[in-house]
TrEMBL record:
The keyword Transmembrane does not apply. Transmembrane segments: none annotated. It catalyses: oxaloacetate + acetyl-CoA + H2O = citrate + CoA + H(+). This is Citrate synthase. Belongs to the citrate synthase family. CDD domains: EcCS_like (cd06114). One of its GO terms (molecular function) is citrate synthase activity. It comes from the Bacteria. NCBIfam families: cit_synth_I (TIGR01798), PRK05614.1 (NF004126). The gene is gltA. Pathway: Carbohydrate metabolism; tricarboxylic acid cycle; isocitrate from oxaloacetate: step 1/2. Keywords: Acyltransferase, Transferase, Tricarboxylic acid cycle. InterPro entries: Citrate_synth-like_lrg_a-sub (IPR016142), Citrate_synth-like_sm_a-sub (IPR016143), Citrate_synthase (IPR002020), Citrate_synthase_AS (IPR019810), Citrate_synthase_bac-typ (IPR024176), Citrate_synthase_sf (IPR036969), Citrate_synthase_typ-I (IPR010953).
Length: 429
C-alpha cells in the first residue's frame, strides 16, 4: 500500500480509495469497497483497466517490450535456460539448482504415460476432428482418469495434478496428432528430454528407428519456453475464473484450452500461417495491407498487434531468429512463406496505420513458419501453444488457490434489457 489515495467525486459526494503499489508496473486503485460506498460498479469490458488478481509470476512492460518470468527476462531464459527449468521457475518461484532440476525432470518424465484406457477414449473422436477439439475433451476427461488428484484442498493432490498435466499434455497432444494421421500412438521415452520425447511421440513410427535432430529439439524447447506464461491473458484469466469456483484443476485447464483456441488468442499462429500462404507472393502484400486497414473489411493481419505490447513483442524477436536457423538447417532455402513474412513485417512497420496504432509482429507471426518446417500441420499449432502454456496456467491456478484473498470470480454488468414485466399467455402474444 502507498500513502497515495484516489479521490472519486460523484455529484456532491467525494470518496477515497487506497492506491496499491506493485514491485514494478503501474499502481492500482483498490476499488473493492466501491459498491458498498457508492452503490455503483465500474464498467470495463475486456478488462482493459482492471487488475483482477495479485500475482508474482509474470510481468510484461508493454511499452518497453519486456517480458519477465519471476523477474528473469525472457531473452535470457530463451538463450541460456531450458523449458523444464522454466517450468520449475514458474511453479516454485526460483531457478532450480542441479539436483532440484534433476529431480524435477525425473518426476515429470515419470508421469508422461497416460492411463491406457485413454487410448480407447481417443478412438471415439472422428479422424478429421480438429486436434484442439480433441484436446479440450481429453484434458477435461483427465478428471475422470485421475480422480485421486482432484481435491483442491489437499496440497499434495494439487502438486500431483500439476505434474501430471505438465507431463501428460505432450503425450495427449502427440496422440491427437497421431490419431489424425492414422498412425499408431507412440509411447513416451524416458531416455529423451522433454522436447525430444515430444518429437519422438509425434514423428516416430514403430517400423523404423527415429533420430531426434538436436537443432529441431532445441527450437521446439525454445518455442515452449516463449509460450510458457504471459500474465493475465484471456485463457489464463479463464483458468483463474474456472478455478475460483473450486472446480478441479483438470476442468480448469480444459477451460483454458478452449479459450486459447480462438483466433484472437492462441489460434492466431494457425491463422497467421494460413494468411501468409494465402498472400503467397510478395507482390500481393499491398492488397492485404489495404484490407487490414479497411474498416469495412473484417480482415486483420494475423500475428500483428497485442493488447499489452505497444512495442516489439520480445518473443517475436527470438522466434524470428529461430525461424531462420531452422529453415537453414532443414535446407529450406528461399522459403516463400518466410519471404512473405519478412517483407510483410517490413512494409507494415513503415505504414502510418500500423505506426499510429503501435502494431508490431507478435509471437505468433514467426512460430508457424518453424512448426510448418518441422512438419506439423497448421491444425496442431495451437495444440503446441496449449502444451507449453499449461505450466503457466497451473502456476497461476496454484497461486490463486493459495491466495487467502481468493473469492469466486463474479463480474457485474451494466444492464440494458427490459425492466420487469408480466408474463403474457401464449394466446395473447
Ligand atoms: N491488423 C489490423 N489492424 C489491427 C490489428 C491487426 N492485426 N490489430 C489491431 N488493429 C487495429 C484495430 O482495428 C484498432 O483500430 P482502430 O483504433 O482504428 O479501431 C486498433 O488497432 C486497436 O486494436 P484493438 O482491437 O482495440 O486492440 P485489442 O487490444 O483489443 O486487440 C488483438 C489485440 C491481439 C486481439 C488484436 O491486435 C488482433 O486481433 N490481432 C490479430 C490476432 C493475433 O495476432 N493474436 C495473437 C495475439 S499474441 C498471442 C496470444 O496472446 O495468444
Amino acid at each position: 500500500m502507498t500513502d497515495k489515495v484516489a479521490k472519486l467525486v460523484i455529484g456532491d459526494e467525494s470518496y477515497e480509495f487506497p492506491v496499491l503499489e506493485g514491485s514494478v508496473g503501474p499502481d492500482v486503485i483498490d476499488i473493492r469497497s466501491l459498491y458498498a460506498k457508492t452503490g455503483m460498479f465500474t464498467y470495463d469490458p475486456g478488462f482493459t483497466s482492471t487488475a483482477a488478481c495479485d500475482s508474482a509470476i509474470t510481468f510484461i512492460d508493454g511499452d518497453k517490450g519486456e517480458l519477465l518470468y519471476r523477474g528473469y527476462p525472457i531473452d535470457q531464459l530463451a538463450a541460456k535456460g531450458s523449458f523444464i527449468e522454466v517450468c520449475y521457475l514458474l511453479l516454485y518461484g526460483e531457478l532450480p539448482n542441479k539436483q532440484q532440476l534433476r529431480e524435477f525432470e525425473a518426476l515429470v518424465t515419470r508421469h508422461t504415460m497416460v492411463h491406457e484406457q485413454m487410448h480407447y477414449f481417443f478412438r471415439g473422436f472422428r479422424r478429421d476432428a480438429h486436434p484442439m477439439a480433441i484436446m479440450t475433451g481429453v484434458v477435461g476427461a483427465m478428471a475422470a482418469f485421475y480422480h485421486d488428484s482432484t481435491d483442491i484442498n489437499d496440497p499434495e493432490q494439487r502438486e500431483i495434478a500439476s505434474i501430471r498435466m505438465i507431463a501428460k499434455m505432450p503425450t495427449i497432444a502427440a496422440m491427437a496428432y497421431k490419431y489424425s494421421v492414422g498412425q499408431p500412438f507412440v509411447y513416451p521415452r524416458n531416455d529423451l528430454d522433454f522436447a525430444s520425447n515430444f518429437l519422438s511421440m509425434c514423428f516416430s513410427v514403430p517400423a523404423e528407428p527415429y533420430e531426434v535432430n538436436p537443432v529441431i529439439a532445441r527450437a521446439m524447447d525454445l518455442i515452449f519456453t516463449l509460450h510458457a506464461d504471459h500474465e493475465q491473458n484471456a485463457s489464463t484469466s479463464t483458468v483463474r475464473l474456472a478455478g475460483s469456483s473450486d472446480a478441479n484443476p483438470f476442468a480448469c485447464i480444459a477451460a483454458g484450452v478452449a479459450c486459447l483456441w480462438g483466433p484472437a488468442h492462441g489460434g492466431a499462429n494457425e491463422a497467421a500461417l494460413n494468411m501468409l500462404r494465402e498472400i503467397g507472393t510478395v507482390d500481393r502484400i499491398p492488397e492485404f495491407i489495404a484490407r487490414a486497414k479497411d474498416k469495412n473489411d473484417p480482415f486483420k493481419l494475423m500475428g500483428f498487434g497485442h493488447r499489452v505490447y505497444k512495442n516489439f513483442d520480445p518473443r517475436a524477436t527470438v522466434m524470428q531468429a529461430t525461424a531462420k536457423e531452422v529453415l537453414d538447417l532443414l535446407g529450406v532455402e528461399n522459403n516463400p512463406t518466410l519471404q512473405v513474412a519478412q517483407e510483410l513485417e517490413k512494409i507494415a512497420l513503415q505504414d502510418q496505420y500500423f505506426i499510429d496504432r503501435k502494431l508490431y509482429p507478435n509471437v505468433d507471426f514467426y512460430s508457424g513458419i518453424i512448426l510448418d518446417a518441422v512438419g506439423f500441420p497448421t491444425s496442431m499449432f495451437t495444440v503446441l501453444f496449449a502444451m507449453a502454456r499449461t505450466v503457466g496456467w497451473i502456476a497461476q491456478w496454484k497461486e490463486m488457490i493459495g491466495d487467502p484473498q481468493k473469492k469466486i470470480g463474479r463480474p457485474r454488468q451494466l444492464y440494458n434489457g427490459s425492466p420487469s414485466r408480466d408474463y403474457e399467455e401464449i394466446s395473447k402474444r
